[in-house]
Task: structure prediction
Amino acid sequence: MASQNTRLALLRLIGEHEGDWGWYQFERAIPPGWFVDEPPTTRVKEILDRLETDGLVTTTPGEPQRRYRLTDQGKDVLRAADVVSATA
Result:
């Protein structure tokens, strides 16, 4: 499971590129070892798959290059994190 910092960073990036990027674009933008709190061999695709399993992101169906979007639950996680950081 990805750390909270990794999850939030990736959710923010997905939100910035809502529906524009597939896993390949994320892999190019975030090479293995980029997240300091993850093992250096962790690939962003593994984290994306976990976020999808957890219901935080979804992909566009029926396309060979599925594009990632935040679910309502993913947006709620980001909002909650923003509230916590604003009050800290």
Q: What stands out?
A: The chain has four helices and two strands. Residues 31 and 51 are 18 Å apart (CA to CA).
